[in-house]
Design goal:
The chain has 208 residues and is an all-alpha fold. It has 2 domains: 1-55, Arc Repressor Mutant, subunit A, CATH 1.10.10; 58-201, Orthogonal Bundle (Tetracycline Repressor, domain 2), CATH 1.10.357. The protein contains 9 helices and no strands. Residues 1-5 have low confidence and may be disordered.
C-alpha cells in the first residue's frame, strides 16, 4: 500500500513539474497577460483539466513557479516547516548560508528571466510583484526576525528592520548586477557584499 501511494505521489509530482516547465516557457515568451491555460496545456503536452487539477488558475501557476524557483532551495536547506533557522548555529553562519542560497539564483538564467518578467509585468499586474514580495521577502523577514528574537546569544533591537535590510539588500544586489547589467559597469563580489551586510545587520544597538 505504501509503495502504491509513493508511486502515485511521484507521478503527480512529475506531472506538476511537466506543467510548470510548460508554464514557465509560455510566461517568458508571452508575458502574463498573453499566457492562457490553452497555451500552457499545448506547451506542456497535457490537458487543461490536468492543469486545473494541479493548480487552480493562472495565478496559482505563477505562485507555484515562485515556489519552484526560489522557496524550494530554502526548504531543502532548512525544512518545509516555515524554514525554521537553527538556533544552535552561529548567526554569522546562518546569515552566510541564507545569503549563499539567495545569491546562487544569479547563476540560474531561468530565474533571472522570470525576475525580469516580474518587473516588466508589475505595472499592469501589481499583485504578481506583491506575491513575490510576500512569498520571498516578507516571509524571509518573518523567519529571520524570529531567529534574531529567539537566539540566546543575540541582543538586538529593530529586528524587523534588520531582517528587511538583509533580504532587501540581497534582492537589490541581484537586480542591480544581473537584471540591470550592473556587473559589467560596477561589479561587486558577492563575498564583499555579504561580509559587510552581516556586520551591519548584527551590529549591537547603539548606546543610549
Amino acid at each position: 500500500m505504501t509503495t502504491s501511494l509513493t508511486s502515485e505521489d511521484s507521478l503527480a509530482s512529475n506531472k506538476a513539474e511537466q506543467i510548470l516547465g510548460g508554464a514557465m516557457a509560455v510566461f517568458l515568451a508571452a508575458g502574463y497577460a498573453g499566457t492562457s491555460m490553452d497555451r500552457v496545456a499545448a506547451q506542456a503536452g497535457v490537458s487543461k483539466h490536468t492543469i486545473y487539477s494541479h493548480f487552480n488558475d493562472k495565478e496559482g501557476l505563477f505562485n507555484a513557479l515562485i515556489e519552484r524557483l526560489v522557496l524550494r532551495r530554502f526548504h531543502i536547506e532548512f525544512g518545509e516547516s516555515g524554514c525554521e533557522l537553527p538556533l544552535d548555529s552561529s548567526p554569522e553562519q546562518v546569515l552566510h548560508r541564507l545569503a549563499s542560497i539567495l545569491l546562487k539564483l544569479r547563476e540560474d538564467p531561468e530565474y533571472i528571466a522570470f525576475f525580469r518578467l516580474l518587473i516588466a509585468e508589475s505595472g499592469r499586474f501589481p499583485e504578481l510583484a506583491q506575491l513575490y514580495y510576500q512569498k520571498v521577502i516578507q516571509e524571509g523577514n518573518r523567519v529571520l526576525s524570529t531567529y534574531f528574537r529567539d537566539h540566546p546569544g543575540l541582543d538586538l533591537d529593530q529586528l524587523e528592520a534588520r531582517s528587511h535590510i538583509f533580504f532587501g539588500s540581497l534582492v537589490c544586489h541581484i537586480l542591480a548586477q544581473e537584471v540591470l547589467h550592473g556587473k559589467h559597469l560596477m561589479p561587486l563580489p558577492d563575498d564583499s557584499l555579504v561580509d559587510c551586510l552581516i556586520k551591519m545587520v548584527l551590529s549591537p544597538p547603539a548606546a543610549a
